[in-house]
Amino acid sequence: MSPNTFKQIVLRERPVADILPDTFESKTKAFDELHVGKSQALVQVTYISLDPAMRGWLRDVRSYVPPVKIGEVMRSGGLGVVVSVGEGSKFQKGDLVQGGFGWTEYAVADDKSMEKISPPPGTTPLDFLNTLGMTGMTAYFGLHDVGQLKAGETLVVSGAAGAVGALVCQLGKQVGARVIGIAGTSDKCAWLESDLGVDKALNYKSPTFREDFAKVVGYLDVYFDNVGGDILELALSRLNQHARIVLCGGISAYNDPQPKGLKGYLTLIAQRAKMQGFIVFDYTDQYPVAVKKIAAGLADGSIKSKFHIVEGLQNAPSALPMLFSGANVGKLVVKVSDEPSMSSKL
């Protein structure tokens, strides 16, 4: 039987700096407000993804996607199960799907806005919110297309214990590079070395971090940047000729209303180096190639993934700031519901 109501979480006000408890608010909606039209499907959301980019979506500024509007359901990628379909829909009841459903228990989605998923052998549906989803695509194309990493080169990865960073480290080892990861706790550094096989992990909170960086890294060929700020400045001072800096994110500045500019960028001239930003959506037509290669690694154990699962949609607002404090290890997701039984009639 269908429920009488369902929950959504909407943007209440735009945060100036840190995300606060009253940035979002919960709304109760009547289930009969959900109307499934032509080429649409009703989806029960099972998991939602929490990503650093979501902080940028809260700013009312020009970007690669419009900002989330006040009163609008918070945007996010997610997984779900189709529970009913409209006329002409390409989906069927019971299909596992991924799409931008947002922070909601149920969503009506256009066929073109979501995709049916069939986990390859050795993988799970949840992998499509991590290594087989936007996280994996970001790591893969950022490293291979933008970074152009080659065997024997030195790769440095900031935010290395996060979802993107952890996969970049592993892809770097696959290429045959020397990989140095940067993280914020000794436990994370130990995990990077023992489980993911990085050559060395450095704790940026250590009082000797700058000295350790110079000693261990020497000079780098590719810097995959998830952090920005002081660590990016440090990397700029340790570039080999023709080094590449992959600007994936700058999480250290996401909550800063007045981020500082770079000082050491002139090194790019002296070392004939390149610093490039990218958006993963530019590679949509190439996703199948990356999914196939990453799935093979998951199946044979050469690629590992880790999840930090928060239970309950109501906890999404308090979980999102974990990304900026480093409280999570691995891919941060929120479990919204169990997969529904398709024997029930919705």
UniProtKB/TrEMBL annotation:
<dbReference type="Pfam" id="PF16884">
    <property type="entry name" value="ADH_N_2"/>
</dbReference>
<dbReference type="InterPro" id="IPR020843">
    <property type="entry name" value="ER"/>
</dbReference>
<feature type="domain" description="Enoyl reductase (ER)">
    <location>
        <begin position="29"/>
        <end position="334"/>
    </location>
</feature>
<dbReference type="InterPro" id="IPR013149">
    <property type="entry name" value="ADH-like_C"/>
</dbReference>
<protein>
    <recommendedName>
        <fullName>Enoyl reductase (ER) domain-containing protein</fullName>
    </recommendedName>
</protein>
<dbReference type="InterPro" id="IPR011032">
    <property type="entry name" value="GroES-like_sf"/>
</dbReference>
<dbReference type="InterPro" id="IPR036291">
    <property type="entry name" value="NAD(P)-bd_dom_sf"/>
</dbReference>
<dbReference type="Pfam" id="PF00107">
    <property type="entry name" value="ADH_zinc_N"/>
</dbReference>
<dbReference type="InterPro" id="IPR045010">
    <property type="entry name" value="MDR_fam"/>
</dbReference>
<dbReference type="GO" id="GO:0016628">
    <property type="term" value="F:oxidoreductase activity, acting on the CH-CH group of donors, NAD or NADP as acceptor"/>
</dbReference>
<dbReference type="InterPro" id="IPR041694">
    <property type="entry name" value="ADH_N_2"/>
</dbReference>
<keyword id="KW-0560">Oxidoreductase</keyword>
